[in-house]
Amino acid sequence: MSQAEIGLIGLGVMGANLALNIAEKGNRIAVFNRTVETTRKFHADAGELKSQIVPCETIEAFVAAIRPPRPIIIMIKAGEAVDQQMEALKPHLAGGDIMIDAGNANFRDTMRRFDALKDTGLTFIGMGVSGGEEGARHGPSIMVGGTEESYARVEKVLTSIAAKYDGEPCVAWLGENGAGHFVKTIHNGIEYADMQMIAEIYGILRDGLKMTAEEIGDVFGTWNRGRLNSYLIEITEKVLEATDPLTGKPMVDMILDKAGQKGTGKWSAIEAQNMGVPATAIEAAVAARSISSMKGEREAAEKILGLPSIGEFQVADRAAFIKDLENALLAAKIGAYAQGFAVMSAASKEFGWSLPMPTIARIWRAGCIIRSQFLDEITSAFTKAPDAANLIVTPAFAAMVKETDGALRRIVSAAVLGGLPVPALASALGYFDSYRRGRGTANLIQAQRDFFGAHGFDRVDGADSHHGPWGSV
Ligand code: 6PG
């Protein structure tokens, strides 16, 4: 029997689906799971893909089943378990073998793991995989970080399983060590911002316009056929139109308003802060999830403070207002993506990766959670201007911002006056307004810093005088 082209450890939901995808695309795959029963059941249930899968019950048999140099995908819970699994594998591997962490790892762990293997002859790939269960099974977006040589060994398999956009595979080698996991982290940060902005718009429709879940679903359905066309808008419509089998009410109305988070959004915000890059939409989205989880405190505060003038939400022309909401969401989305790409651009310099912005946008067009037509427009903008300082100053996006930021301003104003929280939408507007203003207000901050701490300042006229006459005031 011929050897497997690749191996996979961890037959949880994501691992099992990825393994089936690999087998289905004609690649022979060896699989191993800590619990032997899981491996047996997985193989027994694999139907016509059974012959492409080599189920292994020991690590020795698993390693022996793979063609050297052996690429081994580790698809287990991120964190310490990955280090333990790598340690367990190591003694069985030979020079050139490649351990591939396909979980949502913190890129700093990936850098550490990559470095730790440096002098062992083994190599490490940190691979971001997006698209959830469905994506893993039928075509995810794959972001690879590691040596180019190790990528060459797995490129064929990964290309065969990745999602395709107009026939182009959504997989790419993005750079050394932590590049793939960093890009996946920022993908998730943008995902958080995108989801939060959609939720804020939903809040305006629900609490401002008093629309039902089904009516709001129809609005998102219409938008999905326009410029906002994307997976997240598509599932928003589906979610809003689903009925709870227990009560017969809209499903979404029966779900507690406490959002979970596993860390990637927070890591995006932290890394942005570390590099001094504003990523306010991502930060707002992470904070909004945190405040959502403080359900008890919020309920208590509502009793004490009351809701701000919620009954006064006035809309003269409903249709025009809904059109404004669509454009406001598009504008805010541009802000969030611009920030995400700016963070990646800074990280590229900071960590010496040369991250290819047009390629990242290209492999996010299909397969991943933030996939959309919009990403095709970003691909084209960065292809034409790969060194643009910011997405919003590329000609196509500058035009889009100018066209839609008025709507964002009107919507943020209406929401603020109506007492509806829109932290992510407002952050995008604040970002545009600050970024486009040549003369800001930090001159005052510099003066204050100099006043209390003699921190010094630069002058607009370039004169060689760096402190104010504070002693005399
Ligand atoms: C993806 C998703 C995936 C997962 C997130 C959810 O790209 O397929 O982002 O990675 O759904 O980890 O993260 P939270 O649990 O933090 O929302």
UniProtKB/TrEMBL annotation:
Record-linked InterPro entries: 6-PGluconate_DH-like_C_sf, 6PGD_dom2, 6PGDH_C, 6PGDH_Gnd/GntZ, 6PGDH_NADP-bd, 6PGdom_BS, NAD(P)-bd_dom_sf, Pgluconate_DH
Reaction(s) this enzyme catalyzes, per UniProt: 6-phospho-D-gluconate + NADP(+) = D-ribulose 5-phosphate + CO2 + NADPH
Boundaries of every 6-phosphogluconate dehydrogenase C-terminal domain copy: 180-471
One GO BP: pentose-phosphate shunt
EC number: 1.1.1.44
UniProt entry keywords in alphabetical sequence: Gluconate utilization, NADP, Oxidoreductase, Pentose shunt
Ranges that cross the membrane: none
One Pfam family of this chain: NAD_binding_2
Positions of the catalytic residues: K184 (proton acceptor), E191 (proton donor)
Protein's job: Catalyzes the oxidative decarboxylation of 6-phosphogluconate to ribulose 5-phosphate and CO(2), with concomitant reduction of NADP to NADPH.
Protein name as catalogued: 6-phosphogluconate dehydrogenase, decarboxylating
GO molecular function term, any single one: NADP binding
The protein's annotated pathway: Carbohydrate degradation; pentose phosphate pathway; D-ribulose 5-phosphate from D-glucose 6-phosphate (oxidative stage): step 3/3
UniProt KW NADP keyword: yes
UniProt: NADP(+) binding residues: G10, L11, G12, V13, M14, G15, N33, R34, T35, I76, K77, A78, N104
Name of the top EC class for this enzyme: oxidoreductase
Assembly behavior: Homodimer.
Protein family (similarity comment): Belongs to the 6-phosphogluconate dehydrogenase family.
Annotated substrate binding sites: N104, S130, G131, G132, H187, N188, Y192, K262, R289, R449, H455
